[in-house]
Design a protein that fits this description.
Elements: H1 2-17, H2 29-73, H3 76-82, H4 87-101, E1 117-123, H5 129-140, E2 146-156, E3 159-168, E4 172-184, E5 189-199, E6 203-204, H6 211-225, H7 229-236, E7 239-242, E8 248-256, E9 260-265, E10 270-277
Antiparallel strand pairs: 1-2, 1-10, 2-3, 3-4, 4-5, 4-6, 5-7, 5-8, 8-9, 9-10
Helix pairs in contact: 1-2, 2-4
Amino acid sequence: MATSVSASHLCISSITNCSIPSSSWKVSSSRVTWQRRACCRAMVQIQTGAPAAYAKEMERLSAKESLLLAFKDAGEFEGLVSGKTTEYQRIDVNERITSLERLNPTPRPTTSPFLEGRWKFEWFGPGSPGLFAARVIFENFPSSLANLSKMDVFIKDGNAKITANTTFLNSIESSIILSTKLSVEGPLRMKEEYVEGTLVSPTVLEDRVPEQLKGALGQAVNVLQQLPAPLRDALSNGLKVPLSGSFQRLFMISYLDEEILIIRNTTGIPEVLTKLETSPPLGESNPEYES
């Protein structure tokens, strides 16, 4: 109500202060009335436009905060990959994802500079690289022996490198790296093609190794040291598996800003990532983008 009164006062003041040429007085009174009404409408739009944009931005920020709190309530990444997230928590997260998507501030996310950088996976479902990495681990090892501790992706120059960090026996850390190629298919749509998979050589945290396993671990280290140099170097650099032509997928970016990325695969299942870092590695420059 206060906005309408303010706008009306400003409109009346503007009309009163306008200097109208003498020739204008020859037009009919109805035309003068129409001009005054048009002026009032324009002034009201100017007065109410800024508050409306501010209100929408506050709604977007509130939706972001609500989604992040929902992740926390659902057990975050650990709860998701371990299967501890309940059905109620899943539907709650999905509802908040939908609420944020309708407030997407980036009209062409596939060519936006916001897309590049390192992102952390917060939420994913069937068909995603996150579930693929989790399935590899949990189908081959019981949860008491191995777990997927975190997963992130680095996007740069049309390429993505997805890293899934694993821990075995709480003392041996390793990583599974999936290298993919990204192609722009439209303002919202992209294609992802898997190029290579790498199983990084594990790192042993000796202070966490259980006493009953220290002897076996020492023997394993000695065996590795006695391997031929080429084989030892190959193992230390990680086991690489070519994946070209074996897997690809289409996905749509439904939300993107400087902090949150939401994508949906062809079945509509969302993946949510949060930005870890934005600056490119040293020696690399930002590419040109379409507006």
